[in-house]
Write a structure and sequence with these properties.
The complex is a heterodimer of chains A (172) and B (311). Chain A has 172 residues and is mainly alpha-helical. Helix content of chain A is 72%, strand content 0%. In chain B, helix 4 runs antiparallel to helix 5. The chains are: A mainly alpha (172), B mainly alpha (311). At the A-B interface, helix 1, helix 2 and helix 3 of A face helix 1 and helix 2 of B.
Chain lengths: 172, 311
């Protein structure tokens, strides 16, 4: 693997990768930097052995996403009381794009416990700010199907969070 | 926390350096370091970087001639610099924490002074490594820190590094003097014993000696550069001065040890302390005496005389 190719791949991917990670951890810079570093250092080792991937950024995002999921599986969530009152609505509208690390940590903790397909669709809508139509196109589904999956994934997420962090009036 | 989801330019360039370095070293390390609890800390990458440098800080020996060797040297020092930056950050955070705890009465003022000394020390280490890097880039060689080292492109890196040593020594004196004065007050009101004051006095003398040593080195360096002194004489003079100071310090330390021994003997006689304490105090005295003898022999040798057999 040529150093020049590696450097080029790095320069092209570092910003989108960082943004991808940062959105999923609520802008927690320390965590985002660590995850991006870890993902890239693993890439250097893996690509040396197996060669350059076809789409380096996709490879890096996959690794970074797994790292974050593993991290959040171990991180205790904050209480629902600490979330803003309209947190669920903001998730629905795609407005809660990592407003704060704590909130993102709670949501990410819950996401880490969902099936990967459910977590990915929520992340695409919630963290990446994609529209239903964009997700439908990407997943080759109808928009109605995407909306259904989003609704079921949100319910599942809520069920994951409530037993651990407690219910709040109005959310039951 | 930043909400713009953009990396800082510093982070981008630092990570690029780490990736290029890791690539150059090949796959020496299979997995980046990760903490057992699954958490991630910047230190994991810095530990990897330091491992790339060699855990013991492998230094290329004298005679680095070609550009590749210079590049290796620069890479090593850059790695050490990044670690030093982290250590500096830790020391500064520690100082801030001590200041906060002092304000709420959780710690005494001495804790802040000690944290300040550590912070100053970390700053000095960082600045000295920065100077090392500049020297390597200018000279193409490993940095030289002997009193007889030549100037590099007209620049005196030895003297510049000594300035930071002076800074640390001055901070240490400030802390030691404050502690000594505090202990004096406590002795006057009977809270602590006189021999406890001796420890604080010794710490102050050590700090003062350290500064004197740095000042001596600076003066000798100037004499050497001024042509007043041959290279081998500069180092010898410094060693003589350093040995004399160590002897003086040990003699003061011995006074304290004798006082302590007498006090312990008295209390053993009264049945207040166990016999073991007297043995320990005597052992301490003997150790200081042995160190003093060795240094006195060394001093005679440095001055060109013939050392007498001890005893």
């Amino acid at each position: 693997m040529e150093e020049a190719s590696l450097t080029k791949a790095y320069q092209e991917s570092v910003h989108p990768l960082y943004e991808y990670v940062s959105r999923r951890c609520g802008g927690d810079r320390s965590l985002a930097e660590d995850v991006v570093q870890e993902a890239w250092l693993r890439a250097v080792v893996a690509w040396e052995k197996k060669g350059f991937p076809e789409t380096p950024i996709a490879w890096l995002k996959t690794v970074a996403g797994n790292l974050l999921r593993n991290y959040y599986r171990r991180t205790p969530p904050i209480s629902l009381e600490a979330l803003p009152p309209d947190w669920e609505g903001r998730i629905q509208s795609g407005g809660n794009r990592g407003d704060a690390p704590d909130h993102a940590a709670t949501v990410s903790w819950g996401l880490a416990r969902l099936r990967p397909s459910q977590a990915r669709i929520l992340e695409a809508f919630h963290f990446d700010g994609k529209k239903v139509s964009e997700i439908a196109s990407e997943y080759r589904l109808s928009e109605r199907a995407v909306e259904g999956r989003l609704r079921r994934a949100r319910l599942k997420l809520r069920k994951q969070l409530e037993p651990v962090v407690g219910k709040r009036g109005g959310l039951s | 926390m930043s909400q713009d989801h953009k990396p800082t330019p510093e982070f981008v360039s630092n990570l690029e350096w780490q990736i290029r370095t890791a690539h150059k070293r090949g796959n020496r390390f299979s997995e980046p370091t990760r903490l057992k609890n699954g958490g991630f800390m910047k230190i994991s990458v810095l530990v990897l970087a330091s491992a790339l440098m060699g855990a013991g800080g492998v230094v290329v020996k004298d005679g680095v001639q070609d550009l590749r060797a210079q590049e290796v040297l620069i890479t090593q020092v850059e790695g050490q610099l990044r670690l030093a930056a982290l250590q500096l950050e830790i020391a500064r955070n520690q100082l801030e924490e001590m200041e906060t705890m002092f304000r709420v009465g959780a710690v005494q003022e001495q804790a802040i002074r000690e944290a300040r000394v550590q912070s100053r020390h970390a700053e000095a280490q960082y600045m000295k490594l920065s100077l090392d890097l500049e020297e390597i880039r200018s000279s193409g060689h490993e940095p030289e820190n002997d009193l007889s080292a030549p100037l590099v492109d007209g620049r005196d890196f030895v003297a510049e590094r000594l300035v930071f040593d002076q800074m640390v020594a001055a901070e240490r004196i400030t802390a030691a003097r404050a502690q000594f004065e505090r202990n004096e007050e406590l002795v006057n009101v009977g809270v602590i014993r006189a021999e406890d004051l001796a420890d604080a006095r010794l710490a102050l003398r050590e700090a003062e000696n350290q500064l004197m040593g740095v000042n001596e080195k600076t003066a000798l360096r100037q004499r050497f550069l001024g042509g007043d002194m041959a290279p081998e004489d500069a180092m010898r003079e410094y060693e003589i001065s350093e040995t004399e100071q160590q002897i003086q310090l040990l003699r003061q330390s011995m006074e304290g040890a004798i006082t302590r021994f007498r006090s312990v003997e008295e209390r053993v006689g009264l049945g207040v302390l166990h016999e073991n304490e007297r043995t320990k105090a005597r052992l301490q005295l003997m150790q200081i005496e042995a160190q003093l003898e060795l240094l006195e022999v060394k001093l005679v040798t440095l001055r060109g005389g013939t050392p007498q057999a001890p005893g």
